[in-house]
Amino acid sequence: MSIEVNGKTIATDEEGYLVNPEQWDEEVAEALVKQHEAAGHKKVT
Question: pTM for this structure?
């Protein structure tokens, strides 16, 4: 699995966690929150 953030492909595992934690930044965090909420999970506050 993966997500796209500003033209970069960020690899995630089957549970949505980053495969390479060093790729984390604010934009990646926002994309992960959107993915989490889109999957029907509670809104992250």
Answer: 0.71
pLDDT tens readout for residues 8-31? 999 999 888 899 999 999 999 999
> Contact 32/16 with Cβ under 8 angstroms?
yes
**Cα maximum dimension of the chain:** 27
Whether the CB-CB separation of 19 and 11 falls below 8 Å is answered with yes
CATH architecture of 2-38: 2-Layer Sandwich (3.30)
* Cα separation of the two ends of the chain: 25
Structure tokens at 27: 């934009």
Which residue ranges make up each domain of the chain?
2-38
Where do we find the tokens 């970069």?
8
